[in-house]
Every structure is written in C-alpha cells, then in structure tokens.
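B., you asked whether I could sanity-check this one before it goes into the benchmark set. Here's the sequence:
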Amino acid sequence: MKILWHSNAPWTKTGYGIQTSLIGNKISSLGHEIHYSANYGLQGVTVALDDKSRIYPSLSSEQRDYFLLPYHAKNMEADIVITLYDVWTIPQQITTSFRWVPMVPIQWEKTPEYVKYILQGAFRVIAYSRFGVDKLRESGIDAYYLPHCLDGKIYRYHEQKDARDKLGIPNDIFFAVMVGMNKGFPSRKSFPETLDAWSKFIVRHPDSRLHLHTSPRPISNGVDINAVIGSLDLPEGAITIPDIYEYLNTIDSEKMALLYSAADVLLLPSRAEGFGVPLIEAQACGCPVITSDFGPMRELCMSGWLVDGQRDWDQGLQQWQFLPFSHSILSSLEQAYQGKVSGKNAQMRNHASVMAKEYDVEVVTREYLVPVLESLEEAVGGVGSLDILQEL
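And here's what the prediction gave me:
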C-alpha cells in the first residue's frame, strides 16, 4: 500500500512524533510505501527522510492546518491517509477527499457526539487504547486496536542505583518524576493538583524530591508552573525543573530512560489521556506509576496506584472527563514512599518492567500492526481506485 501518515514530524520529541517514528519505520520495513505529512516540525519545503520516504510540510505553524493534506495525498497517490492527531480538529470536507484512517484518542466517559459525527467520513478507524475500542463500539463504531509503543532497547530495566549515580541523584532520597507537556488550561496533566499534593507530602517526608520534566513556561495557554510553586510553602530543592533549552533540546530518550529508572514513582494523574506514553515508558524501566483511575490510564497502570477523583465536564466536546483529588494523589505518594521504605517496591519494579514488554514496538508490530495493515490492504483492494480531490 501507499500510505500517507499525517502527524508530528518523526524527528520531533513529542508523543505523536515518537510514535510516528516507531510505527512509520515498521510500516516501511513491512514493505509498504509510507510518506509523511507534518503538522508540526516542518514548514515550507518537502524533505527526503531517506531514499524511500518524503516528509511533506504544513502551510503554517498551526497544528490544525490541514489545507495541504489532500494535495499531499494526491501527489503521492496515497491508498490511505492515516492521521495521528485530534480528529475533532479535522474538517470533514477534507476527510471525504481520500480514504481516511484516523487513529483516535478517546479520553471521555462516552464518545462525544461531534467525534461520532466527524468519524462518519472515515474509511476505517483505529483506537490506540482498549478503552477507546470499547467506547467507540458502544457508539456503533468498529475500530482496530493498535496501541502506542516504545523502543524496548532503550526503555528497559536499569538498576536504580546505577541510574542515580549517572544522573547525580542521591541514593537516600525518595525521588518522584512527572513527565508531561505544559499545554492547555485547565491543566490536562493536573500540574496544580499534583504540586498541591507534593507540598503536603514534603512536610511529612523532607528527604524527597520531585523532578518535573516539562516547560515551566505555559505552552498554548498552559499553567505558569513557577507561579504555582511560588504560591506553595516548599523548601529549597523540593522540586527541580530543567531549563527551557535543556528541556527542548538536550534531553534524549536514553536520558529519559535513566530518569525513569532512577525514580521511585512516576506521577501522571491526568484529567484525560488518549493513551499516556510516559506510563509505559516508566514501567518498562521498572518505575511504578501514580495515575488517574479513568480511561486508558486505568488499563496502563500495571504496577502502581490509581488516583480517585470526580467527573469533570469538557465544555469543548461536551462530555465527561476526570478531575483527580489532590488528597488521593497525596495518599498514593504516601503508599509509594512506604513501599520504598519496606522494600515492597522492589517487587513492583520487577513486575512493571515485565508487564510493559507488551508495548515493545516489536511485540506491537507482530501482534497488532501486521493484522491491521493486512486488513486495510484487503479493504482498499475491495473498493478499487479513488479519485483523490474529487470533492474539493
């Protein structure tokens, strides 16, 4: 098949960019012709990724700019166009001009009506969580299951002491990490609720440190994290954040794997996640997680603690999501701390690394990607040619 993949460019370090690189490489290795349309990471010029693939640019820096997508599809004579992005941002008149196969993030109690409406234009649908498959099915929409994945050669179990020695982190402290983009308000990653819980936790356990792998500056209407920290009575060194240049440019996957391995727990008690890649990355490195008892996060908590909360209304897509309780985050932190003291966490670390192997890119390719591509190829062959742009 000829496949056009529309998402963040494969060299970007975003969650979408990393999945684009991992899955795109596997699609190519399976003998399909794949080219990319970058909604982030490339503007103004088409670039040859290698001797097999091109990366088409976006027209502007706005990730919701889809103007060129049908033209890219026509240029390469794509059999299908796979989009890995928020489907509710895609104009329906564009999706009817090619065979659209959206990879859909489902992060609500029920599939929103507008999402169901926009998916009417899909040739086939892919969900990357089992939760998403179930919720779409409840709405009368069949979807393939193709989970996000990780590079198991990088994200693997490391001895915690070795990782801390390499990063200069003391071995006698309780070390927590939080990984997430500081984007949107209210904070989808629950930075204020988590920091509030940490301010109470540090009073009980001053031998602790929280590292935020994020931007302290708001991105696309995010949270002013420094202002939140400044409003809390926190001792010096209780929280560390990389500077903005380091965060954007110098922290690679190998260092992230060491960071996860060094940590006693990962914090990701989000309001909503279409998946939550840091959850599988951390657990693959042996780090238990604290995450929300909601949506895909629940199924990805293979070793760790689930946070209680309440329903939270998403006004944009008019459906229920989740608001974690700060006191439940605090309780989970306390359990993680006591588990470290008692030695119980050692067993949890081993269990986490074993269970996360399900999401290794090699396993995902064999178990899910190959069957999905075979089914799509059969479906394309069964409907014949398509005059791309015929509706534009």
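One thing to flag: The mean pLDDT is 93. Otherwise nothing jumped out at me.
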